[in-house]
Design brief:
With 220 residues, the protein is an alpha+beta fold. The chain is globular, with a radius of gyration of 17 Å. It has one domain: Glutaredoxin.
Length: 220
Amino acid sequence: MTHVVTVDIVSDLVCPWCWLGKRHWDDARKLTSDIKVDTVWRPFQLDPTLPREGRPYKDYMREKFSGAEASGRWKAMRDHLEQAGPGAGIDFRFDDIAMRPNTLNAHRLMRWAGGQDKSDAMGEALFAAFFSEGRDIGDLAVLAELAGKAGLDAAVTADLLATDRDEKAVWEEELFYRKLGVSGVPTYIFNGRFAVSGAQEPAVLADAIRQAVREPAETE
């Protein structure tokens, strides 16, 4: 009997480690192409308290990493990401980011994309728009445009974004994973049985996929 490995990837679209983790996941899948894997992207807001219009990025980061120690920690993290990015095909341009958006609407977009089997393209479009192009992925017009690029209907998406469609569902889904103990992203949950946290190297994620084959999801 062939088991399908189900992997829930809990992430946020403004988390640089999540984009790096996505690229590592893509490479891990190439290493395990003989295994059937269903990947589901799950929402997580690193800062759900942000106003819907977001905040200026530099002001936000200055407050978040205030003090010499915190500032040094952010510089070290940024340097590491900028060095690791090219190896994963990522061009992090932190200096070009103007706004730190509220990501609730971006997560709604990911939910709709997932329903059309386009979450991979949607995630890439959102990550690239924010980290490489400095675009505000909290802006509804930007989100609708990116939806069109990812293969969704841009006009329909714009209409949906103008409503509160699926906001409650996204909140409930995020709360579910927070209650499970997810406090940092990316977090990969394999068959609902075990988790791997952080932007792990492809080989580590590939090993986790193989382990998941040996530990299938529990069936009722």
